[in-house]
Amino acid sequence: MRRTTARPGTLPAGPAPADGAAAAQGASSTDAPGQPEQAADGLANPVGAGPAVSAAPAGGQALRTEFPFELPRGYVDESGTVHRHGVMRLATARDELVPLRDIRVQENPAYLSVVLLGRVITRLGTLPMVHDGIVENMFASDLAFLQDFYRQVNAEGHTRAGVTCPHCEQPFEVELGGSRLGES
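Request: output the structure for the sequence above.
Response:
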């Protein structure tokens, strides 16, 4: 199948997805805007061709594609700096398909979430880049938080359930994911 790239000026603005699988396979990438980046599947991926930060659909309401988060514990880098605040973008079909070709995922399906999170987390503290190597060195509680946050963000933006109070029988909604223990 042959792929073509869109003409200049037609690509949405936004950061290119982090591609830990490409880094693991030794694929090259460039920092220059508009230069192609080699993806894990061997196809060129234009830098800056990731999802737009916000796009206004015909209805006039802006589509939100990036979501800030705060890790419960935080990622500790080699110098001992703790990184807790980050941003996750909405996942694309490509984000969910490319990791399936990764040999680590084929050997251990549990590794899928690590590779997938490495693709959709666009920022974490002051780290220059987030990739699957960063995610695999996070604390288990932070990984569980990010897995839950991923489901929340990509399931129409919420994980709410309608419930009824057992005492007064009034209906209300509760948030099932994305909050810390003890918070309501």
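The first strand starts at residue 36 and ends at 38.
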